C-alpha cells in the first residue's frame, strides 16, 4: 500500500482507531498488552504518523519555511545547510525555496508556505518591503531574517555579518604587500543592503589606510560583461589589488584574468568575500573575507527556536567577519 493509515494499524492490531490513537499519544489508560499490539502493528506496517493530523491537535507542527536567493551559490548552500542541520537536531522539518533574487518569486514562496500550518520562517529577503513580507509579519509567526534585512519591514530580528573587521585586515594585508592603490568591486548593490554596507565599510576604512585619492570603487550587475568592463577600467587606472564584495564577481574576474594571460597573485592580487570551496581548490588559493556562514546559519536557527519557545525577546545579532590570507595576494611590482 502507498500510505499506511492509522486505520490500517487498528485493523492489524484488531482494536479501534481511538485506542490506537491513545496508545500512540500516551493518553488514557492502555493495557500493556494493547500497547504491545499497537507497537507490533506499527513496526510491521512501517507506519509513520500523519503530521497534519498531529498539527490539528497541537499548536506546533515542527515545520519551518526557509528561503534563500540561490541554492546553487556556495555561500547560500552552506547557509541553508547550517540552518537546516540546526533545526533538524531540534526535531524540525525545513521547507526550502529559492527566490532567484526576484521579489515576485520570493512572495510566491511566502504565500505558499503561509497556506501550510508552519511554525514560522527564516528568510534571506530581497531588500525591500513587499506585500507578502508584510502579510507574513502580521501573522505574528516567528520570523528571522538572515544575511540581509528588508527595508520597511519592522520588528523582524536579523542575523548577519559585520564587514568591518575582515575588510580592515584585508586592507592592511594588501598595504603590507606594498600596494599603493586598492580597488573595490561592490557587486549588484542597488537592491542589496548587505552589499551596500560592505561598500560603505570599505570606503571608510580604505580612505583612512590608503588615502581617498588611491581608492577606486565600482559596482556591477549580475552578468559577465558588466564584470569585464569594471575590471578593465580598474586595470587601466593602475589598480593591481582588488577586493570583491560579491563572490560571483570574483569568480568571473579570475576567469577573465586567466583568459587574458594575467596571473592571480603575481600580476593582480585578489581578495573576495565568502570562503567558498572553489577558492580553496584553485591555484593560487584565494584570500577571503569570511562571513562565518556556518555561525550565521546556526545563530539564525537558534534565534528562531528561542522565539518559537518564547524564551527571549527577538534581538538582532552580528557575526564578525574574519580575513583569511592566501597566495592570491602577492607582492606589489
Automatic annotation (TrEMBL):
It comes from the Bacteria. Residues 5-48 form the HTH cro/C1-type domain. Residues 4-58 form the HTH lacI-type domain. The keyword Ribonucleoprotein does not apply. SUPFAM superfamilies: lambda repressor-like DNA-binding domains, Periplasmic binding protein-like I. InterPro entries: Cro/C1-type_HTH, HTH_LacI, LacI/GalR-like_sensor, Lambda_DNA-bd_dom_sf, Peripla_BP_I. CDD domains: HTH_LacI. This is LacI family transcriptional regulator. It comes from Bifidobacterium aemilianum. The lineage of its organism: Bacteria, Bacillati, Actinomycetota, Actinomycetes, Bifidobacteriales.
